């Protein structure tokens, strides 16, 4: 099962969490086996770049000389041998058996030979070997299991002595975090079901196991959302603003929209949730479905070319598409799939969406620009560029609206971190129009 999911991820660009969830939903496995498959897939994806370098060093050949299915088998075997509680000989034998069953007898020899060399050393010894001739940043990237360009981005915004901790935090899979729909569910209900209240968000709880099995989630009165995303939405709701409707400019898949809809309803306002892609707009509809009619409406349109009148909203959030460098612990394949070159294309889109958000806000209204990335090219540089086009707009000190969250201020911005706050690395700017 893990091999089948990994093949989808590497050959079809499937998302690890979605492909894995789909497979497990119909597998009927015991919880222990569910956990094993999850760790085998997610862990292999998380350290894939490191494992690829180890496999090439052990085999003495480029991965391009091996058929893709064989590479995935070697990755699975390497993860078992170096990072799981599996005896090396068992990891080798199980992978050889899997190779025989899936690809054929002819590849079992190379699988056996390479994995025996891989398992002859532990992971630390391998990474020390790979880092021996590299500069400080390159060595940090190898030992922290990240591409160099991501390490550079972290070094740009973090104290030098915190970078290694930030990389290490991305390598620890988080427990699922739940969020209540305000007015429909309270955190104490989730706690009574065995969850633990989140440290900073008054709307969240951490739950082990499968969230979909909990009644509030089944009923749509709660959902799954990282605490960092909850804090971004909460901060926007706490800023003084005129009366008027609220707008979620990039609403899919609906987590922030569902939280904001409840907060807007409590304030006597309504939310407009805009999403460009039809299938994601359908997910937004689903996330909002438990609220009474009239709480929110979903619009399917390109947020860069609004279908509504300018200056229509009192509060606007633009949670823009990004590289996802802040959610690497939840999206294990992203660090190896994304490229530095993605930043330029995404930056143009991010600027267009922030311009649209500011144009959609009424005078005196507030705009939250957020993104799940700490990279300056997706965060402060975007905000500073666009603000030059809106001379009447004012950048507020975002940390003032999250006063109970320590060490989150980055100048006038908020930057959350896994190693500091146990959240995704969410960025937030708040602008008054």
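-> sequence recovered:
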């Amino acid at each position: 099962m893990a091999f089948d999911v990994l093949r989808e991820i590497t050959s079809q660009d499937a998302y690890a969490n979605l492909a894995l969830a789909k497979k497990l939903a119909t597998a009927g496995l015991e919880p222990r086996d569910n956990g094993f498959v999850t760790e085998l897939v997610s862990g292999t994806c998380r350290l894939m770049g490191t494992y690829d370098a180890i496999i090439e060093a052990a085999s003495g050949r480029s991965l391009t000389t091996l058929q893709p299915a064989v590479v995935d088998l070697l990755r699975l075997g390497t993860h078992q041998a170096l990072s799981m509680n599996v005896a090396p000989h068992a990891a080798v034998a199980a992978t050889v058996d899997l190779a025989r069953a899936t690809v054929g007898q002819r590849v079992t020899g190379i699988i056996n030979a390479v994995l025996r060399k891989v398992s002859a050393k532990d992971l630390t010894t391998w990474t020390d070997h790979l880092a021996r001739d590299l500069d400080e940043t390159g060595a940090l990237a190898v030992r922290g299991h990240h591409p160099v360009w991501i390490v550079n981005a972290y070094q740009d915004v973090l104290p030098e002595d915190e970078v290694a901790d930030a990389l290490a935090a991305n390598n620890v899979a988080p427990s699922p975090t739940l969020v209540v729909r305000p007015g429909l569910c309270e955190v104490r209900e989730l706690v009574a079901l065995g969850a633990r209240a989140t440290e900073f968000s008054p709307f969240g709880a951490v739950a082990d196991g499968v969230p979909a099995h909990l009644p509030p989630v089944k009923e749509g009165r709660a959902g799954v959302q990282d605490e960092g995303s909850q804090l971004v939405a909460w901060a926007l709701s706490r800023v003084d603003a005129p009366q008027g409707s609220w707008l979620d400019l990039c609403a899919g898949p609906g987590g922030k929209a569902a939280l904001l809809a409840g907060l807007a309803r409590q304030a006597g306002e309504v939310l407009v949730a805009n999403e460009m892609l039809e299938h994601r707009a359908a997910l937004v509809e689903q996330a909002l479905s438990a609220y009474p009619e009239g709480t929110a409406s979903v619009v399917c349109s390109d947020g860069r070319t609004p279908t509504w009148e300018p200056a229509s909203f009192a509060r606007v959030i633009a949670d823009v598409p990004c590289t996802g460098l802040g959610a690497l612990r939840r999206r294990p394949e992203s660090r190896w799939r994304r490229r530095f070159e993605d930043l330029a294309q995404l930056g143009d889109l991010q600027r267009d969406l922030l311009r649209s958000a500011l144009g959609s806000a009424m005078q005196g209204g507030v705009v939250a620009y957020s993104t799940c990335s700490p990279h300056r090219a997706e965060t402060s540089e975007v905000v500073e560029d666009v603000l030059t086009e809106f001379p009447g707009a004012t950048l507020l000190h975002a940390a003032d609206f999250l006063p109970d969250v320590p060490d989150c201020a980055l100048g006038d911005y908020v930057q959350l971190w896994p190693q500091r706050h146990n959240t995704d690395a969410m960025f937030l700017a708040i602008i008054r129009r």
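The first helix runs from residue 2 to 12.
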